[in-house]
Amino acid sequence: MTIHNMQTTTFDKTGFEQWEETAVQSLKGKPFDSLITKTIEGIELQPLYTIESLDKRMQTNCVAKKDSGWIIAQQPYAEDGKQFVADLKHSIERGNEAIAYDGAKQLQWEDSSLAEIGQLMTQYPIFMTNTTQNDPFLKVFLGIPQSDRSLVNGAISVPDWSLPEGFTNIRTTGADMWGVHHNGADAVTELALTLAHAATSAEKAEKFSDFANDFFVRFAVDTHFFMEISKFRALRILWQAFCSAYSLQEAPYVPIIATTSLRSYSKLDPYVNVLRAGNETFAAVLGGADVITVYPHNLLTGPTNGAVRLARNIQLVIKEETHADKVIDPSGGSYFIETLTSELVEKAWELFMEIQSTGGYEAFLANGRLETLLGQRIKEVAKGKQSLIGTNVYAELTDTDFSDWDGLQLYGRLAEPFEKLVAKRKDNHVRTVLLTFGDLKDFKPRADFVSGFLATGGMRVEWSPSFDNAQQALHWLADEKPDYAIVCAIPSVTESVLDQLIEGCSDKLILDAAGKYEAALSQKWLKAGLNGFIFAGQDKVGKLIAINEKLKGGATDE
Same structural domain for residues 347 and 474? Predict the structure, then answer.
């Protein structure tokens, strides 16, 4: 083909209908709707988004950030004020750009250390969370000269405490969604509660404009990458609409502070938390966060210097490698992101109206909706509908630190049920075997599945030799005397051997079968003495607890 022919070649235009037809053919009998994913927010994620997708929705123009880029705000993890200052300076020399203080773990402060912090505050912004009015760190504000106080900027929120005069560039009215996020809230609920919190704060202010100019938002960023990007973008649109409702047509800029979520962090295989943090951080960047804090991967058990360095470098690598800090709205223009942003705006505003009509922010927190959402999340993780790599899927049976760091106040982590199961099995050695039948290619899929299933509860398995019949398996069991066995074979083989295995095995052996079977057959086996079944989509936590109750160690306390 000549260059001229290549330049003049055209292709037939195809529309959504042609794409859908091709997609259906590739599904091999499954319906097209199987490609649609419904989220916890009640949003249906489509397999393909086009400009027509946007045309079908409310048209919303994303309100851009004030500037491109974001502030890296990494927190030092110290035992006293002197170490905090030293670690902060070390961090700033290596890329940190702010003073981040979390009062969940109060420190002892010397006047000299507070004075050093005060000097740094005139050069770097400060962001404070979880701080109470009796925290000695607050003395730092009194030590800063009146002439320097206007140089200090940032965002803090301390209940029942007033910032000394002169700090005109520090925001003190914040909607902190950290708590509701970890109590189960989805993106729509977080956005709606942000507005409800803002409405409550606005009612207390003498002038709405004064409140609006002092307002900031703090979001935790979860691992649902595109949803989190859209959440940040939706907030800016909703804030504009909120201010318009108060007759303020030009909405003041609202800073969004982002922290990586700990909802999906796990003590099991903790290095996977590095991947979670990277995913969450990049979502915050693309969504337009103004300030970002990344938590170390081993924060749950106590951050180490290496983990703190890794957390800081996540942001530095993103800045260096993606250049996203040079673009105001990196994800803008994507049909998917724009449509999802619009859907979040619509649903969040609708829920905000509902919250306001039923008592407001505090009333919503008390009505049990968050508990329901958290229960739904825990159920999805237990059944494997939501994956926690290294925890409820692809679990590694390695030594695990189950201690709790004293600098963290947290509720609602999804990995906790599995951590409790693994911790219980740590010092309770039980011999578990997989009874395999037939050819390797036939039984291996089920044996692999069961091995992975039990590993999420801290149970290590052995594979038996491959048997040809039930009698071979019974002789082997009599010699080996395991505590727990699972039959792993194709359905037809399982059905041919299971009756004999149930009748011939020791009463002390707990026997399960891999797979799901017709109800009448299952009931027959259970009545004959079979313990139960292991299959995909099962409540792993419930099944593993039931197994533990029958194994050595007695009933569990999960």
Answer: no
Answer yes or no: are the C-beta atoms of 387 and 264 closer than 8 Å. no
The DSSP annotation for 478-510 comes to: HHH--SEEEEES-HHHHHHHHHHHHHHS-TTSE
| CATH number for 131 | 3.20.20.240
Q: Point out the domain boundary residue: 364, 384, 412.
A: 364
* Sign of CA pseudo-dihedral 145, 149, 151, 156: positive
CB 223 within 8 Å of CB 40: no
DSSP letter, residue 76: P
Residues 326 and 179 in one domain: yes
Q: Is the Cβ–Cβ distance between 161 and 138 less than 8 Å?
A: yes
Cα–Cα distance measured from residue 295 to residue 301, given in angstroms and rounded to the nearest whole number: 12
pLDDT at 293: 98
Whether residue 150 is contained in a domain is answered as: yes
Q: Render pLDDT for 148-188 as a digit per residue (tens, 0 to 9).
A: 999 999 999 999 999 999 999 999 999 999 999 999 999 99
Burial of 78 (0-12, 13-18, 19+ CB in 10 A): middle
Q: Looking at the predicted structure, is the pLDDT value of residue 557 above 50? A: no
Token pair recorded at residue 278: 């990277």
Which amino acid is it at 158?
V
Number of domains the chain contains: 2
Contacts of 211 (CB under 8 A, 6+ apart): 173, 198, 201, 202, 204, 205
Full domain range(s) for residue 520: 428-550
Whether 191 and 276 map to the same domain: the answer is yes
Interatomic CA distance for residues 52 and 65, integer angstroms = 27
Domain-located, residue 24: no
Are 344 and 479 contained in the same domain?
Answer: no
Specify the residue for token string 């773990």. 105
Q: Which of the four pLDDT bands, split at 50, 70 and 90, describes residue 558?
A: very low
What secondary structure does DSSP assign to 114-125, as a single string?
HHHHHHHHTTS-
User: What tens digit of pLDDT does each residue of 275-315 get?
Assistant: 999 999 999 999 999 999 999 999 999 999 999 999 999 99
* 261 contacts 221 by C-beta, under 8 angstroms: yes
Both tokens of 53, joined, read: 């997708």
Looking at 312, 347, 364, which one is the last position of a domain? 364
User: For position 556, what pLDDT does the model report?
Assistant: 39
> Phi, psi at residue 511, to the nearest 5°?
-120, 125
Give the tens place of pLDDT for each residue, 103-136: 999 999 999 999 999 999 999 999 999 999 999 9
For the entire predicted model, the pTM comes to 0.92
Residue 3 counted as domain residue? no
| pLDDT for position 408 | 87
Q: What is the average pLDDT value for the chain, to the nearest integer?
A: 93
436 and 350 in a single domain? The answer is: no
